Amino acid sequence: MSIRCTVESAFFIAWSFLEQSGELGPPDETANTILDAIEAQVRKGERRQLVLANKAIDAYRKQVAQSRPAERQIRLR
Predict the structure, then answer these.
(1) Which of 67, 52, 65, 69 is nearest to 14 (CA)?
(2) Cβ-count burial of 4 within 10 angstroms (0-12 exposed, 13-18 middle, 19+ buried)?
(3) Tell me, what DSSP letter sits at residue 7?
(4) CA distances to 6, 25, 52, 60, 72 from 64, in Å
(5) Predicted pLDDT of residue 51
(6) Three-class secondary structure of residue 16 per DSSP
(7) CB-hemisphere CA count at 13 Å for 3?
(8) Residue 76 scores a pLDDT above 50
């Protein structure tokens, strides 16, 4: 399988999971986070689709968790 197909499949897996779990955020931001995480892992040599997708999901969740405290501070002011 080509790298392009691997990345596309991993992206679709991650996107579908986040969508079904109700965690999907703004499409552009979510797509960028997922793709950045997948690209970073591909550069390290990872080629397994599920590993790429799971790491992308973890990266997305981490980013969302880090952005939430800032949102709370803005709302509290």
Answers:
(1) 52
(2) exposed
(3) H
(4) 25, 9, 18, 6, 12
(5) 98
(6) helix
(7) 9
(8) no
pLDDT digits (tens, 9 = 90+) for 18-64: 999 999 999 999 999 999 999 999 999 999 999 999 999 999 999 99
| Dihedral pair phi/psi, residue 28, rounded to 5° | -65, -45
The sign one gets for the Cα dihedral 71, 54, 19, 34 is positive
Joined tokens for residue 61? 């969740």
Q: How far apart are CA 57 and CA 38, in angstroms?
A: 10
Q: What are phi and psi of 35, to 5 degrees?
A: -65, -40
| Tokens read off for 5 | 């197909």
Of 57, 73, 54, the closest CA to residue 18 belongs to 57
